[in-house]
Specification:
Length: 108
């Protein structure tokens, strides 16, 4: 922490109030989680977004015709195509779906 903070993840973590005083192994664990998680979510969002544009050529052409829409495309892709490969949910109440009952506390 002898240098000025840079515009990179490790530097920001080294200088942030929440992380600067972490034990080395806790700091390393958090750093690894961010790097691995960032890799997975970025990769999944990019490939999901490319697939969506391939399957919807009119939307791809809209982006080509109006590049100013690209900044709003990123959060829209993340909203439309989850970056997670698996999401578990737990039913909070009994629910019927297409003739099948999903019981409360069932994990889906």
């Amino acid at each position: 922490m002898n240098s000025e903070p840079g515009n990179d993840l490790i530097s920001m973590m080294a200088h942030a109030d929440a992380t600067r005083n972490m034990e080395p192994m806790e700091y390393l664990g958090n750093l690894i989680l961010l790097i691995v998680g960032g890799n997975d979510t970025t990769r999944n969002s990019i490939t999901g977004g490319l697939l969506a544009l391939n399957e919807n050529p009119d939307q791809y052409q809209k982006l080509r015709d109006h590049p100013s829409l690209i900044p709003s495309m990123v959060p829209e892709i993340i909203r439309w195509q989850t970056p997670l490969t698996h999401m578990r949910r737990t039913a909070l109440a009994d629910f019927e779906l297409r003739g099948k009952t999903i019981r409360r506390a069932t994990r889906c």
